[in-house]
Amino acid sequence: MSCELHAIIGTWALVATEWQRADGRHANPFGDGAVGILIYDAAGYMSAQVMRADRATAAVAGIDTAMTTATPGYIAYFGTYEVDATAALIMHDVIGSAFPGWVANAHGRNFVVTSDTLILSADVISADGVAVHASTTWERVG
Q1: Which of the two residues, 13 and 114, has the higher pLDDT score?
Q2: Left if phi > 0, otherwise alpha if psi is -120 to 50, otherwise beta: which for 26?
Q3: pTM of the predicted model as reported, rounded to 2 decimal places
């Protein structure tokens, strides 16, 4: 196991999300105060969840209603991961996701890790076709 891989293994709490659009407009869909958890285990599995802090709440009306109304402001996915320490890249191979289009796809994230901080970043395309540099900062909690 490489040093970089060992440094990533653990449980991480979301500290901040930062999205910068190429056209200069604000792009962060999670807003200020987003909460999340990211887990990497030693067997090569991962899970990530992020949600807006100000997500609308609704009365509990059964699991079927909850499943069709709970998605706005929430992302969750799980799968396996591989670390390329030379390229400072971690690949998330998605097995399941709140976004069906992510299933069976790989998503690369550049990473910087210290003992207590993990920063993941990627260049993505927004819904309206504009390039966005997305970054998440995580703090080790376990």
Answers
A1: 13
A2: beta
A3: 0.88
